[in-house]
Amino acid sequence: MRRITRIATVGVASAALALSVTACGGKQSGDATSDSSEKSAAIAYDIGGRGDQSFNDAAYAGLQMAEKDLKITGKEAEPTEGESEADKVQRLTELARNGSNPVIGVGFAYAPAIKKVAPKFPKTTFGLIDDTSATGPNIANLVFNEEQGSYLAGVAAAKASKTGTVGFIGGVEVPLIKKFEAGFAQGVKDTNPNAKVLTQYLTQPPNFDGFAKPDLGKAAAQGQLDKGADVIYAAAGLAGSGAIEAAATKGAWAIGVDSDQYNQAGLAKYKDKILTSVTKDVSDSVFNLIKSVQDGKPQNGEIRYGLDKDGVGLADSNPEYKKMTDLLAAVEKAKKEIIAGTIQVKTAP
């Protein structure tokens, strides 16, 4: 496998300089400046960056697959804490100008930047994960039915709970994470109408620390555990690892998110208490977009991944999860009914 290139982020001053050079008659935006004929694809990470054991790492896995199977060079760009939209614009601009195709923004926060940058590079495909607000002929919106996977997590939580109280922790209170909350709460209540769902968001926009700081997730989980919760589901990126730690330390169940967190090396100490994870096939969505570009038929528009395409689901890596036959039967029944349309899952609480 080829070595993946990691690109350091630059400040706003550099962004302003680069944009002014373009405006003053430098290389035109639609042209790559790279002299290499080597094919490359790039991902720009969301808050928390690579190593979050969740969302960003799932995107990275897709890039790794493309490197191995498609023989392309992968490039990565990390976010910086408290960065501005100008930083994101500069990051995407540099990746596109250096010849990467596609350039993929991991997370809805990249929507405004992609909307600005994509028209300047019409020959480059831009992938936008988790958002449909930025559209264009060279933009592929990679989106998921998070509420469906979260419904199944709610069913599992209600079945696994001994106290009848479960918790949901959202990283930042934005519409995307409200989908996770809505599906989870509906799944819990449909399974056990008497169950109690404790809900807490770590931060409010424009503060996105709730996706990045494990201590926030840990404190929120401890508060819910103190109130009797014995299953906690966190949709909070890197902050979710703190919730998993708190739940596992107290002997409660944790439900992971975005990737199969039972198999994440950084969470190995707590894996026995990670009941399951709501998976989003971010890795395949990244790989599929890269492959479409390499095949000369780049994806564009909304590409949606739901239960019907195994784009979302529940992981079953934990052997203890597989032993819970009643839980498994309830989850499978709910999955079939969602796909059939018998169960309509809410997208807002």
Q: Can you put this structure into words, describing what you see?
A:
The protein is of the alpha/beta class and 349 residues long. 39% of the residues lie in helices and 19% in strands. It is built from eleven helices and 13 strands. The protein has a seven-stranded parallel sheet with strand order 1-3-2-4-5-6-12, with helices on both faces. Helix 2 links the parallel strand 2 and strand 3. Helix 5 packs antiparallel against helix 11 and helix 7 packs across helix 8. The chain is globular. The chain starts with a strand and ends in a 9-residue tail after the last helix.
Low-pLDDT regions: 7-31
Find the structural class using helix and strand composition: alpha/beta
Give the topology string: H per helix, E per strand.
EHEHEHEHEEHEHEHEHEEHEEHH
Q: Please give the number of β-strands.
A: 13
Query: What is the terminal-to-terminal distance?
Result: 44 Å
Level of helix content? 25-40%
Strand content: 15-25%
Q: Major β-sheet, in short?
A: 7 strands, parallel
> Shape from CA axes?
globular
Average pLDDT score = 90
Count of helix runs: 11
This entry's quaternary arrangement is single chain
Order of strands, widest sheet:
1-3-2-4-5-6-12
Rg from alpha-carbon coordinates:
20 Å
